[in-house]
Write a structure and sequence with these properties.
The chain is an alpha+beta fold. Helices cover 34% and strands 23% of the residues. It has a four-stranded antiparallel β-sheet, with helices on one face. β2 and β3 form a beta hairpin.
């Protein structure tokens, strides 16, 4: 799992980056995403940041990517809505 956080001063860049991350994971909070990672996803995200976003950084902009190992992922504590994310859901129609 990857936890990705970003902060861009430019609204347009921030919106584009949020849409980009949505392809790989889900929003946890306003600018924090959880990505079920593979090495390929991580490489794709890094390449996109290097080629497209890094050159647009101002002194106040940042992207932080935190990889969590399987052991760490299992130790994540969730409350509220996030608590149900790890549970299996059965739908009857």
């Amino acid at each position: 799992m990857l936890i990705t956080s970003y902060d861009f001063s430019n609204d347009k860049v921030r919106t584009k980056f949020a849409k980009f991350l949505t392809k790989y994971g889900r929003k946890l909070q306003y600018s924090v995403y959880e990505i079920r990672n593979s090495n390929r996803f991580l490489r794709n995200i890094q390449k996109e940041v290097e080629l497209k976003y890094k050159k647009q950084f101002t002194g106040a902009d940042s992207i932080v990517i935190v990889p969590l190992c399987e052991h760490c992922r299992k130790n994540v504590i969730r409350y509220g809505y996030a608590e149900n994310d790890e549970k299996e859901v059965v739908v009857f129609e």
